[in-house]
């Protein structure tokens, strides 16, 4: 279905286009199907990674290989409808460097999925990155100028939709209703979504470090309140076990605060360690048609 939809879409475009498909280390027969498609169609270019490097690294690999003046990022499950790209191109021609798809509805997803997605974007905009567009994933068009700026950012832990917002340029939205997946299952269960949210938070803001400072202040205030309570209890001769309750409460609060702060600090130190290695973001094992020049610079999908 993806091949048919994309072929129809590219044939209907009034500008030249190429399709760069990144195979992120799949273990099924996907690569053979892609290679056959590339053999039949020179506009289709395949880039296969040596293993699964993750969604953000795979998208980065596609962006690195793109040659057009306008580049569109989209997933192959057809939840990013190709037809929306036409509206993006209209906005691009109107002068926008970034045109992102903003979801007006989400079909085929559970209430929990919708709730967590809604909460994620509001949390990020409030505490981490106020310029991050709400309800917008990686489905977007970026200009060559914006992509060139984006490619200078080679950090290991990547949050591309935040990186695109950070580089700036003129940006606008195209609203669309996100359809259900054409096939397969989501690769982002709740656990992975939470991990992605944490990565986004620590990659773009020191807010978690400030949170640990605030936690320390709260613990200090609670400890002070417990001390005052113990003093008052002694003055009015309330019956309390001498020292035990206040000591245990303070120890638990301080121990919890220290462990939480160390964990947050460790996340940042771990990212510094990963960046210091200087490893490539991905490793390519197979390509098809990438050595062939595309049609005159236009759109990459």
Describe the structure.
This protein has 301 residues and is α/β, with parallel strands linked by helices. The protein has helices at residues 2-12, 30-40, 55-65, 84-93, 111-128, 144-150, 160-167, 190-204, 207-235, 244-277; strands spanning 17-23, 44-49, 70-73, 98-106, 136-143, 171-178, 284-288, 299-300. The chain starts with a helix and ends with a strand. The relative contact order is 0.18. The model has no long low-confidence stretch (mean pLDDT 76).
What are the defining features of this structure?
single chain; 301 residues; alpha/beta; 8 strands; 51% helix; 16% strand
Radius of gyration: 25 Å
Mean pLDDT: 76
Q: Note the total helix count.
A: 10
Please state the structural category: alpha/beta
Q: Helix fraction?
A: 40-55%
| Percent of residues in β-strands | 15-25%
Layout of helices and strands:
Elements (H helix, E strand, L loop, with lengths): L1 H11 L4 E7 L6 H11 L3 E6 L5 H11 L4 E4 L10 H10 L4 E9 L4 H18 L7 E8 H7 L9 H8 L3 E8 L11 H15 L2 H29 L8 H34 L6 E5 L10 E2 L1
